[in-house]
Automatic annotation (TrEMBL):
This is HTH tetR-type domain-containing protein. Residues 29-48 bind DNA. InterPro entries: Homeodomain-like_sf, HTH-type_TetR-like_transc_reg, HTH_TetR, MT1864/Rv1816-like_C, Tet_transcr_reg_TetR-rel_C_sf. The lineage of its organism: Bacteria, Pseudomonadati, Pseudomonadota, Alphaproteobacteria, Hyphomicrobiales. Residues 194-219 are annotated as: Disordered. GO terms for molecular function: DNA-binding transcription factor activity; transcription cis-regulatory region binding. It comes from the Bacteria. It holds the Pfam family TetR_N. Residues 209-219 have a biased composition (Gly residues). Residues 198-208 have a biased composition (Low complexity). Keywords: DNA-binding, Transcription, Transcription regulation. The keyword Phosphoprotein does not apply. Residues 6-66 form the HTH tetR-type domain. It comes from Prosthecodimorpha hirschii.
Length: 219
């Protein structure tokens, strides 16, 4: 019995993901995917517009998994601790799935088609959930939550990228986990200090953070 387009789409995405995980995005071709699922190249092009479209479908699965990695397990009730945990979880996800993370953020599509709504919705959900926790951690600081999230995300992303390339040691002896935690603590302290320069504006740094975290291996 011939497979339906939905079955072929699911199989193609699974195979494409496996190629990325095993060999990197450069190893992914439509022909290799077609051979692996036992169909013609033309059939793949009947399901996906092109290789970029297939990669966007793979990226959607990565966004779903990243969201689960960040939010499926309960976060601490204390807002600052929750934001610090999110940074560690993001780093840990990238360390656990380096080639998928790289594909998600560094692959450049050749097509000028706009991203499909279902893909943009996944990005929006991820950003909105992070913003909600950032808003709680920044409560009363007077900081622009969206701008603050942009800065924090970009900064943690940069630490992650250096860690995955093995280049973090060029700029610091700290582990990626410790550096990401220091970043969040320092940023929040700065945001509060702008409103209240006294001791009340400081963010305490609890013991047991940083190098001993699950993401500390990303050094």
């Amino acid at each position: 019995m011939a497979k339906s387009h939905d079955d072929l789409r699911r199989d193609a995405v699974a195979v494409a993901r496996g190629l990325v995980v095993g060999e990197g995005t450069a190893a992914l071709t439509v022909r290799r995917v077609a051979e692996a699922i036992g169909c013609s190249v033309g059939t793949i092009y009947n399901i996906f517009a092109d290789l970029d479209d297939l990669i966007v479908h793979v990226a959607a699965t990565v966004l779903d998994e990243m969201h689960d990695a960040l939010f499926a397990a309960p976060l601490p009730d204390e807002p600052v601790a929750a934001l610090r945990d999110l940074a560690q979880r993001y780093l840990a996800f990238a360390v656990a799935h380096p080639r998928l993370w790289t594909m998600l953020f560094e692959y450049t599509t050749a097509s000028e088609r706009p991203m499909p709504d279902w893909h943009l919705e996944r990005i929006a959900r991820l950003v909105a959930d992070v913003q909600a926790h950032a808003a709680a951690a920044l409560d009363g600081s007077g900081a622009d939550v969206k701008a603050s999230v942009d800065v924090l995300w970009a900064s943690v992303h940069g630490i992650t990228a250096l860690a995955l390339r093995g280049k973090l040691g060029i700029v610091t002896a700290e582990s990626a986990g410790a550096l990401a935690d220091r970043l969040v603590v320092t940023f929040l302290a700065g945001a509060r200090a702008e409103r209240d320069p006294g001791p009340a504006g400081r963010v305490a740094r609890p013991a047991g953070r940083g190098p001993g975290s699950a993401a500390g291996a990303g050094r």
